[in-house]
Every structure is written in C-alpha cells, then in structure tokens.
User: Fold these one by one.
Assistant:
Number 1:
Amino acid sequence: MRIALIAHDDEKPEMVDWAREHESILAGNDIIGTGTTGGRLNDETALSVTRMESGPLGGDLVIGAEIVTGNCDAVVFFRDPMTAQPHEPDISALLRICDVRGVPLATNRASATALLTGLVDSGSAES
C-alpha cells in the first residue's frame, strides 16, 4: 500500500508521535508525505518517506494527483482546525479527491489509528 502522511505545522509533533506508535505497520508500506512532514518523519522515525513539495508549495495537489493516478491508497492528514491555511483551496481539493476516488482519509489521531487498523485487518497493509 502507498500511504500519504501530511500534517499542518502545529500537528507535526502529533504526526511524528503517531507514526512512531505505528512504525512497525507503516514500515511495511510505501510512505509519501509533504515536504516538512516527510522530512521530520525521515529524521525522527525509522521510516523512509518519499517527500513531495511542501503543502503550500503544491504538495497537497501532488498527493491529490497520486490519488487520481491510482498511486495512493490512503491519506492520513493531521489538520489544524483552529488555524486558517493560506493554501486552503488545495487542502479542500485533496479532501474532495479522496471522496471522489473512495480513498480512505483520516484527519486526526483517532481516525488515523482506526484507518490503519482497518487496513491491517483487511490485509491491505503490512502488519
């Protein structure tokens, strides 16, 4: 499976912590991420994350394109619901394409854990 991991600035520590908690499962999959999130995950976990551009520089759209071409199977996007984002249209487009293409999307720690558990239980993700 190819799983995208994305986090807004205030959510990056939470993403790193969650990824560490689920590292054994995530490591058995192809992981992509937006620029800074991918960099932090590469630096602070044992995961190997293919980094796209930063979200504000088009990274969310690149991951959306990966979904459209069938190259992304799930998205974990820890969003900061309390802070306006300058690239909000790109974020909305990414969330919309997940819905259009039926790609599982988690936007917080609880839903991310449920998503990953569901993928493992279905045999889609490595355990």
Number 2:
Amino acid sequence: MAGTKSPKCPVCGNAAVEKWMPFCSAGCKDRDLLQWLGNGYKIPGQAVSPDELAEHLTGDSGRNGEV
C-alpha cells in the first residue's frame, strides 16, 4: 500500500499507534481526555443559563413536550 499516509495523533502530530488509536501514546490519550474534562474543547455559540438548560432537559419549555 505505497503512498498511503498513516494517521497522525490529533494531540501531538506523531504517527498514531494501533494500541492507542487515534493517538500515539497513553500520554496523548490522557491529555485529550483532560481537555474534555477541563472544558478545554468548546463549541462556539450563545451561552445558556442554568434555568434555560433545566427547562430544556425537563421539557417545561411551554411547547407541549416538543424538543
């Protein structure tokens, strides 16, 4: 399979290792998890208040249970 590129680790850019896919090591895998747990990854958008979130999660938004 000449010409195929091996996947790269999304954290450091080194070649990914099958055991840790898509990462190259346990360290990069753990670093990625810590980013998720520490809110390091965010999706841009308008902030939602805790009250609005609770309304959405309980379905009390006044729309007859529509989501």
Number 3:
Amino acid sequence: MRDDRFCSSNCPFTRAIGTIGNKWKPIIINVLGTRTMRFGQLGAVVPHISRKVLTEQLKELEEDGLLERLAYKELPPRVEYRLSEKGLAFLPILENIKEWNLKYEVATIPKETDYKYAG
C-alpha cells in the first residue's frame, strides 16, 4: 500500500522511496526486467506474493509510470505487463543494490530459497 505522505514530500529522496519503497515493487521490477509477462507468470516467479498484493502492486506501478499494462481485445482476454522507459531506467539502480548486497551481506542463503530473477 502506498504511503501518500512519502509521495508528496518536499524531499526528492523521500518521494522516490514512496514510489518504490515497499518490498514487492523492486522485486516485480527486477523480475520483469526487459521482458513482457502475463499476470500468472509474474505470480509464479515472484516468491510468496498473494494474487491480491500482486494486483495492487501492479496497479500502483502503472499509476506511477513504471509499468505498462497491455490489454488485448481477445477471447479469453489477455493482459501483459512490461516496464516503461521510467521503469527500465530503474534497472541499473537495482543492479547497484544487488552488487552492494553481495559485497556486504553476512548471512548465507540456503539453496532452496535462492530465487533467480532477471538480470
């Protein structure tokens, strides 16, 4: 859920955190990467996210201009998601965060919880 107090702050860093600041949005952006994916595919790849939360997060990412929702007029209906130009511009920042974590993380991750994301 978005915290509008963060999004309307005078501080640009606080506004940025308000846009991408929960745990799910960066993961969704990372999983999408440069691909186009359907809702079911995202739900299968993003670990431990409920359908309800995934729906909310995708809607917020679209509202914030990080994601494009492509709805096709077919039967059955088909909807795909991909990163917008703004979302793609966030990928190098995520790479830097991953590199920072690899350099400084102290805990080792068991193989069964080692998820593979895009990038």
Number 4:
Amino acid sequence: MEKISTSHEDYLEAIVMLGGTTEVSVRSVDVATKLGVSKASVSKAVTALKEKGLLDQPYYGDITLTAEGYAYGSAVYERHRLLILFLTKAIGIDQEVAEREACLMEHAISDGSFEKWTIYVKELDL
C-alpha cells in the first residue's frame, strides 16, 4: 500500500486503538481526545482518509475503517506496540520516553527494515 502522511497514520492508529474496525465504529470526539486535537482537525483528516478509501463516515456519523484502513492502522499500531516493548524491556528505557520515541520511530522505519527487526526482536523472546 502507498505510504500516507505521519499525521494520517496517527489517525488510523488511534481509531484502531479505540477499538475501531470494519464492523465497529468510533466517535470523532473520541479520536480528538485520544490525539489531543480539535474536532475540526479530526473532520479534516477524516475527509482526506475517506478520499483515500481508508475509512467511511456517513454525514456527521461515527467513523468505520475500510478493510484497507484497518490493515494499515493495525500495522502502525503493531509497530508502536513492538517498539515500546523493545525499548522498555530490552533496553530499559522509561515507559513515558519509550511511548514518545516509539511514536517517532514507527513512522520512520521502512517496511523491509521493520520486518527484519521484528524477526530479531522475536528471537529475544521479550
């Protein structure tokens, strides 16, 4: 799949973290709260993500991910989760710092590098 902006990846990840799927919708206000942004910012991002075919939202309705949007958001969330696990358990970085840095790293690492890194981390048996 074509890479999207870091900001849009954050929106998809937040929707997944809030329990959003292709079947389960989430409210825009909950996404705004999770990301610490305004409802207007969520509305703008939702419009862009709808245009990319990554989510659906009826007029002023709740947000539901498309299959492609769920796969993308889940992949970003999985990167985030594994990076935090590695940073906290393998290296001993403080949870708060690990959260912040994992968020930066999850967007920067290529798919190929992440796949190889995941194999390495699984061998560590964290």
